[in-house]
């Protein structure tokens, strides 16, 4: 059996201005997600975790914490953009365009705006992307521009996957039942 490497993300050499990535995983936000995130980050705006306050608001229900929405959209983009990043360098122009409520499913996409060599690190480059989050209706809920430093392919790190003590069987052993 041949072991094939899983997705390793994009390296600096893989980015071109104009590349468009539709990130593969959508995420439905629950009220539990919203409450936990809000309380973990010590956000005291009851609009996010108090149903009575939410019902009395202009929206008639609690809003999802906008920084949770930002975190989900940014996280969704990692697989296609910054999986091999060394560091985020900046976030610009964060816009919150439509509200997100518990039960909304968020999807995201990014477009590459700029690609350049790093002046300080020859093993890396700088990439700038515009990313936006959409909810299931297609409405844009959030957008931002993010700049990050990403490894060049030659700087790829060695995986730390452990060496298995036993071989991985491709078929069940004789007499085994599924």
Describe this structure as you would to a colleague.
With 178 residues, the protein is α+β, with helices and mostly antiparallel strands. The chain has three helices and six strands. The longest helix has 13 residues, at 66-78. It is globular and about 60 Å long.
Beta-strand fraction estimate: 25-35%
Structural class: alpha+beta
First-residue to last-residue Cα separation: 21 Å
Percent helix among the residues? 10-25%
Q: Can you count the helices?
A: 3
**Which consecutive residue ranges, at least 5 long each, have pLDDT under 50?**
none
* Main pleated sheet: 6 strands, antiparallel
Rg, Å, rounded:
21 Å
Strand tally is 6
Compute the average pLDDT: 92
The shape, in one word, is globular
Order of helices and strands: EEHHHEEEE
Chart the SSEs and their pairings.
Layout lengths: L19 E3 L4 E2 L2 H10 L10 H5 L10 H13 L6 E12 L8 E13 L6 E12 L4 E12 L27
Antiparallel strand pairs: 1-4, 2-4, 3-6, 4-5, 5-6
């Amino acid at each position: 059996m041949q072991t094939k490497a899983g997705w390793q993300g994009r390296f600096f050499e893989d980015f071109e201005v104009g590349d468009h990535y539709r990130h593969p995983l959508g995420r439905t936000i629950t009220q539990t997600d919203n409450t936990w995130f809000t309380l973990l980050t010590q956000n005291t705006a009851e609009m996010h975790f108090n149903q009575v306050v939410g019902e009395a608001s202009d929206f008639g229900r609690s809003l999802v914490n906008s920084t949770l929405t930002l975190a989900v959209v940014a996280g969704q983009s990692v697989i296609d953009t910054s999986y091999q990043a060394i560091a985020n360098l900046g976030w610009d122009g964060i816009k919150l365009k439509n509200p997100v409520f518990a039960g909304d499913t968020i999807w995201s996409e990014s477009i590459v705006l700029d690609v350049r060599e790093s002046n300080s690190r020859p093993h890396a480059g700088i990439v700038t992307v515009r990313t936006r989050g959409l909810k299931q209706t297609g409405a844009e809920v959030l957008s931002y521009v993010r700049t990050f430093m990403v490894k060049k392919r030659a700087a790829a790190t060695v995986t730390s996957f452990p060496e298995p003590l036993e071989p991985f069987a491709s078929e069940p052993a004789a007499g085994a039942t599924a």
